[in-house]
Amino acid sequence: MLSTPRIVAVVPCHNEEAAVARVVTDLLAAVPGIEVHVYDNCSTDGTAEAARRAGAHVRREEEKGKGNVVRRAFADLDADVYVLIDGDDTYDVADVPTLIETLLAGPYDHVVGVRRQVTSTAYRSGHESGNRFFNALVTFAFRRKVSDMFSGYRVFSRRFVKSFPGLSRGFEIETELTVHAVNARMPQAEVAVGFRDRAEGSESKLRTYHDGFRILGVFGQLLFHERPFLVTGAFSLALFVLGLALGLPVVAEFASTGLVPRFPTAFLAASLVILAGVFLLMGVLLSGQAKIRREASRLFYLRQPAPPWSGGDVPYRAGSHGAEQRRQLP
Q1: How many angstroms from the chain centroid is the CA of residue 238?
Q2: In a domain, 274, yes or no
Q3: Do residues 134 and 211 touch, judged by C-beta distance below 8 A?
Q4: Between helices 228-257 and 208-226, what is the axis angle to 10°?
Q5: Is residue 59 part of a domain?
Q6: Do 177 and 154 meet the contact criterion of CB atoms below 8 Å apart?
Q7: Other CB atoms within 10 A of residue 59 CB
Q8: Position 270 in a domain
Q9: Distance between start and end Cα atoms, the chain
Q10: How far apart are CA 203 and CA 18, in angstroms?
Q11: Which residues contact 218 (CB under 8 A, 6 or more apart)?
């Protein structure tokens, strides 16, 4: 008989006094036995008191930024299943049992709550199109379909959490979580979850363009770190094509006249071709290092215990509604 897994919820909060109590009480009601840990991230209102009164364990993280909270929580807490959910009450907590059931029935290491708007104004202007752009970017770069890489509603196994380096500081943490799962080829699934407007009296911390550029920068760093040959190969190809475009007319002129009147152009073309070769060689070397690093990461991942597989008989049943949610995903 399957023993009940230990489940903890991590709730990052910055000035969420208006919403956090409902998130905590809904979590405690939805999943019997769950431990709810609210991380007060430099709040200046009554977030900590509201969460404590609702029944949560409250911790304080002095380094501002959601990434700092997630890194701290993953280091602090030990459990079989980890639930990550924002404290702004925009995600439907009633979907938590479905996410947990999916993780354990897989078993998977990562289950993403793909947002489906309950209200037409849940997504801020520009966020939905930005999300689609980054989803397509990650899908292309890592050859693994991603439907909602910015979702803050996720469930993890212990071996995901304890093998995740967690280098990001702010909202770009979701990008790092997604890339870690995709690049490590961890078994994962997606489940549709409800997404609604923020609670009245609370204010979004997201800055569309500022955070978008930060996320793009982090994605570029992760791409170069994890897929170096793709990046250096693109630069190498661009330099080689440019070198050919500049150099072929010079070569043709030399073949017909025996002269090189445009020597600076010839020198530039040759330099570009040489640089293309340097970038290509650098990509080969960095790819070898990345492969060694992935192998080491994989071995560390395998040292952690697998999720308590239930063979489909899990302690939290979502019923037909959960099955319908999974069928709606593309």
Answers
A1: 30
A2: no
A3: no
A4: 80
A5: yes
A6: yes
A7: 18
A8: no
A9: 34
A10: 10
A11: 168, 172, 175, 176
Considering the domain boundaries, does residue 145 fall inside one?
yes
SS3 154: strand
Token code pair at residue 183: 């690049």
Cβ-contact 193, 115 below 8 angstroms:
yes
Q: How many residues does the chain have?
A: 330
Tokens, residue 256 = 């017909």
Specify the CATH number for the domain of residue 42: 3.90.550.10
Residue 202 has which token pair?
């609370």
The candidate with the shortest Cα–Cα distance to 61, out of 83, 39, 80, 87, is 39
pTM over 0.85: no
From first to last of its 330 residues, the chain has per-residue pLDDT tens of: 356 889 999 999 999 999 999 999 999 999 999 999 999 999 999 999 999 999 999 999 999 999 999 999 999 999 999 999 999 999 999 999 999 999 999 889 999 999 887 665 555 555 667 778 888 888 888 888 888 888 999 999 999 999 998 887 877 888 889 888 888 889 999 999 999 876 665 555 556 566 667 777 777 877 888 789 989 999 999 999 999 999 999 888 888 888 888 888 999 999 999 999 999 999 999 999 888 888 888 888 888 887 877 655 545 444 434 444 443 343
Instruction: Give 263-272 contacts, CB < 8 A, sequence gap 24+.
Output: 269/243, 269/244, 270/243, 271/243, 272/239, 272/240, 272/242, 272/243, 272/246, 272/247
**CA angle centred on 19, ends 22 and 161, rounded to 5°:** 80
Q: Give the chain's domain count.
A: 1
**Domain interval for residue 57:** 7-225
**Which residues of the chain form beta strands (DSSP E)?**
7-13, 35-40, 57-60, 81-84, 110-117, 154-157, 188-195
Q: Identify the residue whose tokens are 């040959």.
A: 229
In one letter, which amino acid is 319?
A: G
